[in-house]
Amino acid sequence: MNQPIHAWPGLMTTNQAAAYWSMSPRSFRSLVNAGVLKPRKLGPRMIRYSRAEMDAVAETFPAERGDRPPA
User: Which residues pair with 53 in a beta bridge?
Assistant: First the structure.
């Protein structure tokens, strides 16, 4: 799902955010649960993730293949 960066919304659902980082929603939720990324609660059942925050967090990930982001 390679889309130009302007095609991704500024606030994404869990599934969109997982696709943005090219991972499964389950793996993405594991990172959220580990505190790597904080969700934004917009309502009782509406959770979104900021693309700008995701980009900033992604910059802290190790560049080498197979390394995991800090938890």
Answer: none
Whole-Å CA distances, 62 to 2, 3, 7, 19, 59: 21, 23, 26, 19, 8
DSSP type of residue 18 = H
Distance (Å, whole) CA 5 – CA 71: 26
Tens of pLDDT, residue by residue, the chain (71 residues): 566 656 899 999 999 999 999 999 999 999 999 999 999 999 999 999 999 999 999 998 877 766 565 55
Q: Is 41 helix (H, G, I), strand (E, B) or coil?
A: strand
Dist CA 60 CA 28 (whole Å): 16
